[in-house]
Specification:
two-stranded antiparallel ribbon; mainly alpha; 2 strands
Length: 124
């Protein structure tokens, strides 16, 4: 995943209304879900800005612990056997993790940053 797209994951996962919309239609394409649920974009830019310090702190911790690498092309890659793939925790944290997986899968499927930015009303 490109670093710039990774900054969009937390605002989508942690915002309860966005999370509920995305988890309610996990098999539907994210672009169609966003088109049909315009409320996802309300305040999205502000949420992204507010979450940046936490995202950067998280990435710093993951780098320090050797859990992720940044490839030469700027993509973030997990280190095998360093990141647990099981989903556990409270019901809310499990939902956040499920939505993060859906978003990651959809970002990979779309594979075009400009399309994702345009969909969510973000200027690169």
């Amino acid at each position: 995943m490109p670093f710039s797209l990774s900054l969009l994951v937390l605002p989508l996962c942690l915002h309860k209304d966005s999370r509920e919309v995305i988890v309610s239609s996990p098999r539907r394409y994210l672009l169609k879900t966003t088109e049909k649920n315009q409320q996802l974009m309300v305040g999205f830019g502000d949420r992204v800005s507010e979450m940046l310090p936490y995202a950067f702190e998280g990435f710093g911790l993951l780098m320090e612990r050797g859990c992720i690498n940044v490839a030469d092309n700027g993509r973030i890659q997990t280190v095998p056997k360093k990141v647990r793939k099981t989903v556990s925790g409270t019901a809310e944290t499990v939902n956040c993790q499920k939505v993060a997986r859906i978003i990651g899968r959809e970002f990979a499927r779309i594979a075009d940053r400009a399309t994702i930015y345009a969909t969510f009303g973000i200027r690169p």
